[in-house]
Specification:
single chain, 1039 residues, alpha+beta, Rossmann fold, GMP Synthetase, Chain A, domain 3, ANL_N_sf
Length: 1039
């Protein structure tokens, strides 16, 4: 079989030597360079160069004789995940007796840094053309576990070297993998050529592969379907398309790459990954009448029911859809079923599942009952095997003839077809009755308007269903981002449909509507992420004390048994049962923060009004310190206001905010700000090489539109540089996080009373963090612990960042109620307020000289106020809203306008100049003070560098999407001024401030409306995929 495998690829390479074999598309703009590709002759050259090194070391004397058969080098390969923990990689390498490793040259430093404690190696060869470095593992040990990890005593240096040498001979093994771990503990699987080649040959025939095909490598190399993708393409003379894993998480961009740019013809994916495209894209692009896709092969998860498949496919689409089934232990696929058009076009809703299909070449299939007897009709566990199709697991040296592997999957034989029923380890007991979670999942998927579903068990008892609705995905996403439950009517409709199909013990305790299901790296549903999301939802469920109306609403939402409940409704008489009552008590107990022994009795025997009163009494008796200091819910303003607070002793404080704004307070020498120091030397600019890599990410639970604020306190600890830097940022999850800049660790987290879009500010002494919230409050929190020191309530949402007056200590904040408030946090009072004639969305800006406060409104007014009294000095009326925040130099004030202009005024309110862009300007300007220039982005996708004197254009930089956020100017050691910029497509850019040349870019998996802030070689930014990211910058002078 090895010769068959190699012969097929060799034959394709000789027939199509000058055709493209592999294409890598980065998915980025032209700035990232053209797509990389390999011709078939270059692929053979790469194989030859790698094999030559192996053969010289194995058999120097025979090298000349074997050179003509270089592709038959007797070696197996094993993919390594660069993102995997170092100890795990080292243990895997040790168990396999790994001798050589081909590393991307750009990852060599990371490889050495993470694995140096476990191995020593030498560089055998570098292949500059292919950007690869080949290393020889000289000594490898897995005997040094991390603190707190458990290790068997027999694992020593070279402990697993025999795994590749036992059983199958070297030349018989094709590759080594771990199982994904989704069906049990991960296993080491060694796959001989004779096991995988029949898969390639049979599927190549079933899919009618030809040299004109384009195959998308959908799976990571650590997942065995990738082997099928690679060899289906290369043995047919077809083209293999590869994209970064990050692009796979961006459905719209991925669909464009696959079906518009590269015209993919063969797609092998998990159903969940396919569903991530969304119903509209599936029907209008992937499975449209004009789609390039010939073959869609679904595997790795249960196949969606026919009704759902039918809803994805346009009536005139010609794509053939296959259902693949297999386990890694009998690599890769065991069964295949071509779904007939008659089934897809049938209106019969009685066909609940798609058959697994017939066994593939050399594969044997058995179904056995619980006693091990073969079943020919009915239900049982599926077993797979057959000849050489069985792989070697862990320490197995050989496999006995006739070995059949248990799959752990329960199937039903109906009309000589196998139908998947569910995992044997996914069967649970509820009220003494069995429920299979996979069967329940398939039933939910078959319901109308359900696009995707995942069913799981939380804390071993609570049955949860996570559903993506095909009919209201946009409304679900809106509700989800606004922080509440989503789609109560839709939930009830689905639960009512299930109650017709299932007994009460089979109905989920909770049904959560989501905009999309999260994926694992292998493209399967990430159940762990779903459970974490559910836990966050329960944390946000806390009942308010004193707010009777909100308490009633939230209790009604939990009641769930009927659409409406009046005061005299009884839970059981309204359709509830004892199991639902227990679950409701658990929900209420979690929301209150303490259980009540009488709660279940009140629920079963009492009315809704009695339940309401009982919960109110529970709340009154709840201790105020029920939450831990590191994760506290917001205190009511009345309670928070009673706390005493005294300002901390004076410390040297630096505050870094968006638009490159740096404020220094209590410094021993304040003649020079950090910003000025960072920009000085720009005239003696030297070219730098900038590299950007991910340092850490923190999950906030919802989209992050707020910009980070960094607080640097000198002498805060005993670190080498004598200072502590903390990142403060809010999220639409209602949370505010304090994160350590160096590690990303959560120092504390607060849940406020609404979404947080506003960026935070800091008090002059650095002991208070001030942040506005959608609930209309301005929170004054302890920088050290997150505890509330004071809360001030305005008349509407607060979405702007306050300005802090270092002279008076006043906090100057705008609100959507149209007012600007001057707040004294020490006295806990409002000193003055001024109505500005319109909602204040943008952040007020306080200028030192002349001493003026600039405020812009959505009514199109820019006002100059006296910061001590609130009196108006002058106002400028534009007639269109201002979303951009004003910024100042010593001679002017600049602001962007949604009419597309960047406007510059004198400090007396006279318009100096305006510069027209090609789109609305939401970005706030940032100054290059030493060069008398300013930077500002626009929705036309450009960053503009303008002369502050006359508004003339110095340079522009074109991104690949809109620029909503503000640029950040910072200093590169020895390299002058640089600019950090974000575009809404998720790209972070680093530019040379002198000429706008791009020095680096990094793509994040979500939209960016947050503005970057740079400190100590680290770019911090929030993302709409719920995370806050820190990106490391490394600057190297060009030689």
């Amino acid at each position: 079989y090895q010769s068959v495998d190699i012969a097929a690829v060799s034959a394709a390479a000789s027939l199509h030597a000058d055709r493209t074999a592999v294409v890598f598309d980065s998915g980025s703009s032209a700035h990232a360079g053209p797509s990389a590709s390999l011709l078939y002759r270059e692929l053979v050259q790469l194989s030859g160069e790698l094999s030559a090194v192996f053969l010289r070391r194995y058999c120097d004397s025979e090298f000349s004789r074997l050179s003509s058969r270089i592709l038959q080098c007797p070696a197996a390969y094993m993919p390594l995940d660069p993102e995997a923990p170092a100890l795990l990689s080292a243990q895997v390498m040790s168990q396999c007796g790994l001798k050589y490793c081909a590393v991307e040259t750009r990852l060599m430093q990371q490889f050495q840094a993470t694995l140096s404690r476990y191995l020593t190696f030498e560089v055998c060869a570098t292949l500059p053309k292919f950007k690869l470095t080949l290393i020889h593992i000289q000594k490898l040990s897995c005997a040094k576990p991390e603190p707190g990890t458990k290790q068997d005593g027999h694992q020593e240096a070279g402990c697993g070297a025999s795994l590749l040498e036992s059983g199958a001979a070297h030349g018989e093994l094709a590759y080594v993998l771990h199982t994904s771990g989704t069906t049990g503990p991960p296993k080491m699987v060694r796959v001989p050529h004779r096991c995988i080649v029949p898969n390639i040959l049979h599927l190549r025939s079933l899919f009618q592969m030809s040299s004109s095909d384009v195959v998308f490598l959908a799976s990571p190399l650590t997942f065995d379907p990738s082997v099928v993708d690679i060899f289906l393409a290369l043995s047919s003379g077809a083209q293999l398309l590869i994209v970064p894993s990050l692009i796979k998480k961006m459905p719209r961009r991925l669909a464009g790459l696959l079906f518009k740019e590269h015209k993919v013809t063969v797609l092998q994916v998990t159903p969940t990954l396919l569903l991530s495209f969304g119903h509209h894209t599936l029907k209008e692009e992937v499975l449209s009448p004009s789609s390039s896709l010939r073959v869609l092969a679904l595997g790795g998860e249960a196949c969606p029911p026919p009704a759902l498949l039918r809803s994805w496919k346009h009536e005139e689409n010609k794509t053939c859809i296959f259902n693949l089934y297999g386990i890694t232990e009998v690599s890769c696929w065991a069964c295949c079923y071509k779904i007939p058009e008659t089934l897809l076009r049938s209106s019969d809703l009685g066909e609940p599942s798609v058959p697994l299909g017939a066994p593939l070449m050399d594969t044997e299939v058995d179904v056995r009952d619980e006693l091990g007897r073969v079943v020919t009709e009915g239900e049982g566990q599926l077993f797979l095997g057959g000849g050489g199709r069985v792989c070697l697991l862990d320490g197995e040296g050989t496999v006995a003839s006739g070995t059949m592997r248990a799959t752990g999957d329960w199937v039903k034989i109906r009309e000589q077809q196998l139908h998947f029923q569910g995992r044997t380890d996914r069967t649970i007991k509820r009220n003494g009755k069995q429920v299979n979670l996979d069967h329940l999942q398939q039933l939910v998927l078959a319901l109308p308007r359900v696009a995707a579903c995942a069913v799981g068990l939380h804390s071993s008892s609570r049955l949860l269903a996570f559903v993506v609705s095909s009919s209201s995905s946009s409304s679900v996403r809106q509700h989800w981002e606004e922080g509440g439950g989503a789609g109560g009517d839709e939930k009830r409709r689905i639960l009512e449909q299930l109650s017709v199909l299932l007994p009460s013990h089979g109905i989920p305790d909770s049904l959560e509507l989501l905009p999309a299901l999260p994926l694992t790296p292998h493209g399967k549903v990430d159940l762990e992420a779903l459970m974490r999301s559910y836990e966050r939802q329960r944390e946000r469920l806390g009942f308010p004390r004193g707010d009777v109306h909100t308490l009633k609403q939230r209790l009604q939402a939990l009641w769930k048994v009927c659409p409406l409940c009046d005061a005299q409704s009884n839970f059981l008489l309204s359709g509830g049962d004892s199991l639902k009552a227990v679950r409701l008590c658990e929900d209420i107990g979690a929301a209150v923060g303490a259980p009540s022994p009488q709660l279940l009795e009140v629920l079963l025997d009492g009315t809704f009004s009695e339940l309401w009163r009982h919960v109110a009494l529970m709340l009154e008796g709840r201790p105020s310190s029920s939450h831990q200091a590191k994760k506290r819910h917001a205190d009511p303003p009345s309670a928070a206001a009673k706390r005493e607070w005294k300002p901390a002793e004076k410390r040297a404080v630096r505050v870094l905010q968006r638009a490159g704004r740096v404020t220094q307070m209590n410094m021993t020498d304040s003649s020079e700000t950090l910003e000025d120091a960072g920009l000085r030397g720009a005239e003696s600019h030297r070219a730098v090489k900038v590299e950007m890599s991910l340092s850490w990410a923190s999950d906030t639970g919802r989209c992050v539109d707020a910009s980070p604020m960094l607080l640097v306190i000198d002498g805060a600890n005993q670190s080498s540089d004598g200072c502590r830097t903390t990142v403060f940022i809010g999220s639409h999850s209602h949370r505010v996080q304090a994160l350590d800049l160096g590690t990303g660790g959560v120092l504390w987290e607060r849940v406020l009373g609404g979404r947080v879009e506003a960026s935070a500010a800091a008090s002059p002494c650095g002991s208070l963090i001030i942040v506005g919230c959608y609930d209309g409050c301005i929170y004054f929190l302890s920088a050290d612990s997150g505890e509330t020191r004071w809360t001030f309530r305005t008349g509407d949402a607060v979405k702007s960042c306050p300005a802090v007056d270092a002279v008076s200590g006043l906090v100057l904040a705008g609100s959507h109620d149209g007012n600007v408030y001057a707040l004294d946090p020490q006295a806990q009072r409002c000193v003055w307020k001024r109505h500005c004639g319109g909602a204040v969305f943008s952040s007020p800006h306080l200028h030192d000289s002349p001493r003026q406060l600039y405020v812009a409104t959505l009514a199109g007014r820019l006002l100059s106020l006296n910061p001590d009294s609130g009196d108006e000095s002058w106002s400028y009326h534009r007639g269109v809203p201002f979303f951009s925040s004003p910024n100042c130099s010593s001679s002017c004030v600049v602001i962007g306008s949604v009419d597309g202009n960047i406007c510059c005024l004198t400090h007396t309110g006279e318009l100096l100049w305006q510069f027209p862009t090609q789109g609305p300007v939401f970005s706030s300007p940032c100054f290059l003070r030493e060069q008398h220039r300013l930077l500002c982005g626009s929705h036309d996708g450009r960053l503009y560098c303008l002369s502050a004197a006359d508004g003339s254009e110095v340079w522009t930089f074109q991104t690949c999407s809109r620029v909503y956020s503000s640029p950040c100017v910072f200093h590169s050691c020895g390299g002058g001024a640089l600019v950090a910029l974000a575009s809404t497509d998720g790209t972070v850019w680093i530019l040379d401030a002198a000429n706008g040349q791009m020095l680096a870019s990094h793509a994040l998996p979500g939209e960016l409306f947050s503005s970057p802030v740079v400190c100590g070689g680290c770019v911090v930014i929030g993302c709409r995929n719920d995370y806050v990211y820190a990106l490391n910058l490394t600057n190297k002078e060009e030689t």
